[in-house]
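Exercise 7. Given the encoded structure of a 687-residue chain, write a plausible sequence.
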């Protein structure tokens, strides 16, 4: 074993610096955070060549006293904490006292700073941790730091940097996040002599989001504002229609610090479950504010990870905040964009100068081919039964209740559909009737959401919610079987104006797939299968839990060791769905209760659930019953191309238009869209 020696101070410095400064964007993060802590109102970041050769940060913060400048560059020198106790309530971005020392160890730095109360400021030059110059100078109040030749003395680190353009992009993303976390500060970002980003600093997160992500994306954002158990969650979440292919636009701040948190991410995505296309991800800018002594920010030198003392309340707060916002925003309808011929605003001119077009239109109009609608769009590939979908389903296949039948659960097209006992229940949509006497409210929080039965189709929309008694429901019940919240969520009635009764006139059906309705001055188009699928799904979910019945004949089932283990480990989910088991010796379970809506044998259901639990990824276990219900709902819903009575179409349209919860099918496809009078008239040059 070679001799053990104490490292040189300079080598130790380089090693320590390596933990804080990974790349140019780490320098920007640390120095801008210092400017924020210094109370700056304006921060300018300027870089050249991806920041590797040049970075400059200018702020109008409190400045550093001339004689304190060398101290600021010493490791463990900070003005932000004093004692160990201060570590439990950190409200500043920095506190470790090592960022400036770390940058100084691996770069050439020139700093100029002046406090507003001083006549003269100071200039300080430090290279590779060695002081080079320190002198008085005249400069504006605030601090300017210039970093040149980053990693000039650590070639190994330099070698691992990406191209200038990529490093510049990392910096841009860092500046964006800092700007979003502090909308009250005006940020300016200059890249290779070009000003590429500027936020106003007017305190509005939306205006910062517009500057960062662009107006179109910002306009699609749904505001989030919610408190639960002392945790405030505010900001914006993307509309389910504007989902992304990756998680890159999920931005979480905790007490204004940008963090990466799987808890927050999971809560966000859980809130979008069943309203977003599979494989897509929501975007968000969420600020989570909680007591500083309930988080530990001292986890990593880069300070981008934090530990929550209690994860679950944070999960709950984010989940309910987003869920609530989505429910409240659900009546936004995606508008169809009608494209006008660009060059000719005046249609007369357009046709005059394009006589060919008139001829072509005249020839083709009478022969518009009737294109068959896509046949395979009803279920996602893994659950769809292509045969069943392409063929119109007779009005007899219904999801019934009561009888338990033996249906194979292990085929690829798992069939949970009971053969009709009450054929009208699922397929025949009843006519609008009298308003229900006491519809239930499902409280997500803050606002009141009306939960209705299938039987209530079309009858609830116009009724004032003011006189309807509140029934508090388990908050998560509105979406999924995983009861996340341990405490009931505050149920508050919002004094909203009574919605006006809208007149819904079904004009007809397009391709036997889309219902066309006139609603006020809008043309609404509804995908009848997607809409009915969602209605069935919600109904099944409700029944699934509420119809759990004790079995008179307690069935025993022998499982494999792995199946038994899976059921045992995730029994929480199984139980929440109304299936009750007693775990006996020798891998035997006794089935004591089962939702009566399940129309297969209890042993088959339990075996299937065990297998699904074994195979699903950990984070998907909670979604397991949703998947089963998706399949059931999809199969029992009206299909595209089915012949549907106009009365049924009218009832379905009324139910959909008036119930905000029916905006996406359980697989996340939109249920309806609209075309406004304005858009149509604009297109035809009538407006
Ligand atoms: N732009 C600035 N304006 C005013 N003071 C500053 C500025 N930058 C740094 N300082 C002072 O220099 C000190 C050292 O900064 P440094 O970034 O090294 O440590 P820190 O911010 O306290 O903690 P951390 O290492 O976690 O960032 C700060 O505590 C602060 O007092
Ligand atoms: Mg700092």
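Solution.
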């Amino acid at each position: 074993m070679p001799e053990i020696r104490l490292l040189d101070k300079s080598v130790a410095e380089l090693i320590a610096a390596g933990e804080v400064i990974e790349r140019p964007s780490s320098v920007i993060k640390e120095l801008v955070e210092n400017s924020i802590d210094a109370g700056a109102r304006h921060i300018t970041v300027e870089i050249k060549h991806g920041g590797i050769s040049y970075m400059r940060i200018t702020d109008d913060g409190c400045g550093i006293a001339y004689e304190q400048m060398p101290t600021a560059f010493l490791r463990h020198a900070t003005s932000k904490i004093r004692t160990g106790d201060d570590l439990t309530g950190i409200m500043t971005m920095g506190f470790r006292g090592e960022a400036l020392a770390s940058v100084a160890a691996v770069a050439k730095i020139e700093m100029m700073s002046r406090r507003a109360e001083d006549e003269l400021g100071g200039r300080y030059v430090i290279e590779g941790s060695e002081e080079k110059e320190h002198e008085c100078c005249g400069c504006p109040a605030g601090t300017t730091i210039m970093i040149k030749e980053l990693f000039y003395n650590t070639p190994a680190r330099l070698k691992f940097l990406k191209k200038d353009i990529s490093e510049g992009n990392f910096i841009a993303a860092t500046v964006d996040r800092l700007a979003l976390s502090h909308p009250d500060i005006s940020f300016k970002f200059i890249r290779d002599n070009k000003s590429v980003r500027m936020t106003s600093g007017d305190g509005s997160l939306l205006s910062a989001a517009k500057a960062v992500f662009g107006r179109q994306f910002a306009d699609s954002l749904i505001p989030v504002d919610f408190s639960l158990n002392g945790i405030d969650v505010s900001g914006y979440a993307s509309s389910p229609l504007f989902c992304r292919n990756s998680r890159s636009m999920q931005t979480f701040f905790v007490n204004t610090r940008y963090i990466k948190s799987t808890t927050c991410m999971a809560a966000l995505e859980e809130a979008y479950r069943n309203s977003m296309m599979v494989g897509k991800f929501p975007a968000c800018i969420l600020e989570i504010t909680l007591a500083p002594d309930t988080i530990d920010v001292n986890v990593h030198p880069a300070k981008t990870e934090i530990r929550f003392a209690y994860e679950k309340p944070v999960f709950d707060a984010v989940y309910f905040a987003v869920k609530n916002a989505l429910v409240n925003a659900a009546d936004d309808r995606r508008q169809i964009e009608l494209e006008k011929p660009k060059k000719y605003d005046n249609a007369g001119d357009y046709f005059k100068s394009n006589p060919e077009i008139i001829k072509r239109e005249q020839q083709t109009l009478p022969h518009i081919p009737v294109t068959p609608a896509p046949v395979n769009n009803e279920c996602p590939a893994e659950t769809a039964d292509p045969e069943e979908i392409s063929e119109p389903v007779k009005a007899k296949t219904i999801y019934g209740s009561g009888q338990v039948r033996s249906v194979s659960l292990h085929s690829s097209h798992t069939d949970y559909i009971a053969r009709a006992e009450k054929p009208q229940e699922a397929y025949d949509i009843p006519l609008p009737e009298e308003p229900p006497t006491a519809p239930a409210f499902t409280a997500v929080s803050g606002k009141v959401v009306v939960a209705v039965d299938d039987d209530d189709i079309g009858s609830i929309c116009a009724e004032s919610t003011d006189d309807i008694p509140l029934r508090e429901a388990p908050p998560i019940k509105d979406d999924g079987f995983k009861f996340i919240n341990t405490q009931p969520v505050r149920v508050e009635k919002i004094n909203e104006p009574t919605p006006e009764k809208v007149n819904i006139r079904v004009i007809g059906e397009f391709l036997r797939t889309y219902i066309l309705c006139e609603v006020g001055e809008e043309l609404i188009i509804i995908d009848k299968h997607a809409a009915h699928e969602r209605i069935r799904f919600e109904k099944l979910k409700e029944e699934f839990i509420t119809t759990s019945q004790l079995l008179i004949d307690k069935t025993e089932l022998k499982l494999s060791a792995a199946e038994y283990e899976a059921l045992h480990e995730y029994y929480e989910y199984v139980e929440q769905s109304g299936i009750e088991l007693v775990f006996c010796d020798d891998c035997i379970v006794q089935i004591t209760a089962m939702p009566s809506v399940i129309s297969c044998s209890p042993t088959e259901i339990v075996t299937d659930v065990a297998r699904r639990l074994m195979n699903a990824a950990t984070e998907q276990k909670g979604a397991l019953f949703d998947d089963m219900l998706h399949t059931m709902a999809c199969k029992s819903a009206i299909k595209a191309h089915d012949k549907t009575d106009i009365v049924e179409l009218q009832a379905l349209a009324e139910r959909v238009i008036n119930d905000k919860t029916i905006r996406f099918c359980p697989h996340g496809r939109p249920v309806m869209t609209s075309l406004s009078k304005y858009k149509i008239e604009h297109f035809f040059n009538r407006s």
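Remark. The longest strand covers residues 548-558. Students should compare their own answers with the one above.
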